[in-house]
Amino acid sequence: MDTEGTGRPARLWFDARGDGPPFVLLHPGGADSRALEPLAGELAGSYRVLTPEQRAHGHTPDPGGPLSYAAMAGDTIAFLEREVGAPVHLLGYSDGAVVALAVALRRPDLVRDLVVAAGVHHHGGWAPGVLEDQARVPEFMVDAYAEVSPDGREHYGQVVEKLRRMHATEPAFTDADLAGLDLPVLVLLGDDDEVRLEHAVAMYRALPQADLAVVPHASHGVLVEKPGLCARLITDFHATDKPETLAPLRRRADA
């Protein structure tokens, strides 16, 4: 497992809105914080929502070199230390979920709890054909990148290639890695997700304090397709007064 970033952390551009406990949302790869806009709008009434943009994404420039989850986790840790300075609710979406998981494994002192939304803990968790399809980038994603990136429209092809190389071998967390993460985690995905359902269930089972939410009639775009439902699932997950379930197995006091 590679949890250590390399090189100097990039300074991440971010947006913030709302009042309440800090809730940091990490966007998908190849996109930027606008991909989280529907969910952020639902959450801003209850939290201070912060949406940093990773290196080579959105408003944050590409510092050069390859992309890796470890480097982006290092950038995010530096962001949390600088801009928050206290444990946060943390959510990652798709590639952002892997970054969030890497942050929690490396610095659990900075994370109150974690939502892994439509993400994998091993690169084998993607459905067949998903990684191969990433070479066919929709034009609207290129347009969106060009609207805000300081590196210019033509640089997006380099970002896509860096992501392709990263996805070929990363992430590679093990069940033992997950078993060592002793904080509450919500594993959330659509029932027709690009993440294999079996992989999400394996993640849920390996994590010692996990909840699992499979959103019906939803795809890999689950946070955009059903932001209201996802926000309710997340706020319920954050609740400190959850009732006892009637017939627990995994959560039995003597388990």
TrEMBL record:
Keywords recorded for this protein, A-Z: Hydrolase
Pfam families under this entry? Abhydrolase_6
Organism (species):
Kocuria oceani
Query: What is the recorded name of this protein?
Result: Alpha/beta fold hydrolase
Q: Which InterPro entries match?
A: AB_hydrolase_1, AB_hydrolase_fold, AB_hydrolase_sf
**Which Gene Ontology molecular-function terms are recorded?**
hydrolase activity
- Residues annotated as domain AB hydrolase-1: 23-232
